[in-house]
Amino acid sequence: FDHHVIQEEDLIPSLVALPDEGQVQSKCPLNLEHLAHPGFKSFPVEQGGGWNPPDCIPRFHSVLVIPYRDRPENLQQFLAFMHPFLQRQNLSYDIFVIEQAPGMAFNRAKLFNIGFREALKATSEAYCFIFHDVDLLPMDRRNIYACTRQPRHMTSHLDKFRYNLPYPQLFGGGIAILKDQFQAVNGFSNRFFGWGGEDDDLSQNRVLASGYQICRFPSDINRYQMLSHRPAPRMADNYRKFKAAGGSDHDGMILSRDGLSDLMYTVLARTREELYTKILVDLSTSM
Ligand code: UD2
Ligand code: MN
User: Fold this and answer.
1) What is the pLDDT of residue 251?
2) Which domain of life, per UniProt (predicted)?
């Protein structure tokens, strides 16, 4: 796993911008001084949590997808923090919270697949996706919430781990990936119920196996605060169980059968909340 670290002077050139429609003069500035601007007041967002810069044309649009169940304090803090953070970066964005209805074990990866599907139905301009936990807050304004040319691992240095990377292959927490790349790897696996394994499956068996590289920004930019929460019930052998059940890695079979291509779910409610769009889903429909 040979991830590429983008140098600080290359941050902005590494990002994939919205198509340029010739209105270059009125494009929103995106420079580090601007990001560090001190007297920033946040703007109101649209009902449903979307936002566009009011007086310039955004260079980037990002869809944030947040998997969620029963962490109301985390969600409230996340939204209160993220709206001003993203607005300061002058990008246009949408926030989708995909909530799993009670009953089955939590399935983070499948909720991301659902968020991808639902966001594409709702926003035609979606081309960049940020799949992100509800309990992680970026601490550095240079951490631009837009997609790089290659899939990016964002949340590598957490306060919880004293800003050390627990293992170099880590791809959990928050990632940014282009729509076409996510489609090309058939999304996440739908088969990881319970805690763990889904992030490694995405990086090893999908993203890298499909010939993409994984990149990160420099480590001081990737600092995050992790909000406290009750630990999820661990099923540490999730991944081994998955493999024992026939989920082998490199034959390309699982990848093509398991993911966006066989995604099944039932939407129980779509609600445009004040600060986000909520999609409540039932996962008991087959895979
Ligand atoms: C780690 C990873 C996470 C994921 C997980 C294993 C990092 C920083 N985090 O997080 O990305 O790979 O291990 O699956 O690498 N959630 C709920 N309700 C629940 C359970 C989970 O809303 O009952 C959501 C929520 O967005 C949460 C995320 O799923 O942030 C990950 O779950 P976690 O925070 O319990 O797991 P954690 O911290 O071990
Ligand atoms: Mn967590």
Assistant:
1) 47
2) Eukaryota
Dihedral sign, CA of 162, 163, 166, 170? positive
Atom 22 of ligand 1, nearest CA residue? 68
**Cα–Cα distance, 243 to 198 (Å, whole number):** 12
Q: Which of 126, 173, 124 is nearest to 146 (CA)?
A: 126
Report d(CA 145, CA 159) in Å as an integer: 19
- Strand arrangement, sheet containing 4-5: 4-5, 215-216, 152-153, 174-178, 128-132, 61-68, 92-100, 277-282, 266-272
Q: Is 151 in the pocket of ligand 1 (CB under 6 A)?
A: no
Nearest atom within ligand 1 for CA of residue 134: 26
Reported as a single tens digit per residue, the pLDDT across 110-161 is 999 999 999 999 998 899 999 999 999 999 999 999 999 999 999 999 987 7
Q: Is 28 in the pocket of ligand 1 (CB under 6 A)?
A: no
pLDDT at 34: 58
pLDDT attached to residue 33 = 63
pLDDT mean over 205-227: 95
Instruction: Find the 285 Cα to ligand 2 centroid distance in Å.
Output: 26
What ipTM was predicted for this assembly?
0.98
Q: What is the CA radius of gyration of the chain?
A: 18
- What one-letter code names the amino acid at 10? D
Instruction: Pick 246 or 217 by higher pLDDT.
Output: 217
Q: Is the pLDDT of residue 255 over 90?
A: no
Q: Are 134 and 197 in contact (CB under 8 A)?
A: no
Cβ–Cβ < 8 Å for 139, 225? yes
Question: If phi over 0 gives left and psi between -120 and 50 gives alpha, with beta otherwise, what is residue 150?
Answer: beta
**Residue 56: Cβ-neighbour burial (10 angstroms; 0-12, 13-18, 19+):** middle
Handedness of CA 266, 269, 271, 275 (dihedral sign): negative
The rounded Å distance from CA 261 to ligand 2 centre is 28
